[in-house]
Amino acid sequence: MFLVDGSPSGIVTAEIMNWTGHALLAPRSEIGRIRKRPESQKTGIYFLLGEVATSSEKRSVYIGESDDVGRRIEQHAASKEEDFFERFCIFTSKDANLTKAHARYLENRLSSISGESGRSILLNSNTPPSGSLPESDIADMEFFISQIELVLPVLGYDFLKGRPSAIVAKPTLEDFLVDNSGIKNSGANTANDITQLRLVDPKTGVDATALMSGGEYLVLRDSYARANAMDSLARHLSGYNALRNSLIGDGSLVPHPSRRDILIFTRDVAFRSPSAASAIILGRSDNGRFSWKIGDTGETLAQYQSRKIAEAAE
Q1: Lowest CB count within 10 Å: 1, 35, 138, 146, which one?
Q2: How far is CA 309 from CA 25, 214, 288, in A?
Q3: Pairing mode, strands 216-219 and 269-271
Q4: Strand arrangement of the beta sheet that strand 2-3 belongs to
Q5: What are the backbone dihedrals phi and psi of residue 194, each rounded to the nearest 5 degrees, phi first?
Q6: Residue 22: exposed, middle, or buried by beta-carbon count in 10 A (0-12, 13-18, 19+)?
Q7: CA–CA dist 121, 143 (Å, integer)
């Protein structure tokens, strides 16, 4: 990754060794400069990227292709109906072997992947046709997509990231009470680096399930959260309070059909920390490392992480 302007907020380029692809990320204000760069004059795929206030807010994204990606983005910027994006990202090929047919295939597949991930508001009005490619070309383009999926998160965009696979068994309620500090015998209910968590508070009716994977905490759809946040949340954690209100405002948290004291998650919502997730769910300041419990052992997250560190040191 190279910071062209010496700043991550400026023009950034990225490549992967032994890959012919080239990525360029830039702010909308730099379209004029980008048009002078040779990679912007090639056939390629591009993403128009809206801004978000929090990590859990869905980003508006438009995915397109062109045989002159810079010129096409310039046209988008000139349209009053497409003023949502503040940054854009271009993917082209260094060896100039990316054709219009390849770009159409990439646009189709990346639009489908983004839609299935549920992490963005995809502004494409419909899924573009994939066209027809030879089998060998399809294999090459699937590899190209896998590299895009690696590069985008490094640049700060994870809207192509898939939903972690659910873990097999749902534990019993008794294993996860917030005030239960006992550690149960370790089981074998794991799936690669995905760990199932659950947070239950019988006093408030909270019952939430999450998947921990790659430093992210994905609270799953149909989880319960407390309807009325405590005043201390707004007083001491205004950021979390704003995020909670945002989730309510965009319909991610809606009232339970029969319980006034409960909100329900209507979609999977990703958080960057266990405490952010638990504070939103419980409606108060909370140390998520102690309130989230591990799905197969009943340990608190803190106990689980300490055990893993000790095991790694042996």
Answers
A1: 146
A2: 37, 16, 18
A3: antiparallel
A4: 2-3, 12-14, 21-27, 85-93, 44-50, 59-66, 120-122
A5: -100, 130
A6: buried
A7: 25
Q: How far apart are CA 115 and CA 124, in angstroms?
A: 10
Can you say how many angstroms the Cα of residue 173 is from the centroid of all Cα atoms in its chain? 29
Nearest to 177 by CA among 212, 205, 211, 196: 205
Query: What amino acid is encoded at 236 in this protein?
Result: H
Distance CA 200, CA 225 (A): 10
39 three-state secondary structure:
helix
**How far is it, in rounded angstroms, from Cα 92 to Cα 97?**
9
Per-residue pLDDT for the chain (314 aa), expressed as one digit of tens each?
Answer: 888 888 887 899 999 988 999 999 999 888 888 999 999 999 999 999 987 756 666 788 999 999 999 999 999 988 877 778 889 999 999 987 899 999 999 999 999 999 888 888 899 887 777 778 999 999 999 999 999 999 999 998 888 987 654 443 444 444 444 443 333 333 333 334 688 999 999 888 999 999 987 677 889 999 999 999 998 888 878 888 888 998 999 899 999 999 999 999 999 988 878 888 999 999 998 888 899 999 888 899 888 887 876 776 66
Answer whether 249's CB lies under 8 Å from 282's CB: no
Tell which residue, 211, 233, 216, has the closest CA to residue 283. Answer: 233
Distance CA 190, CA 64 (A): 38
Q: Whole-model pTM?
A: 0.61
- Composition of the chain by helix, strand, coil, percent to 5: 35, 25, 40
Closest CA to 242 of 279, 274, 270: 279
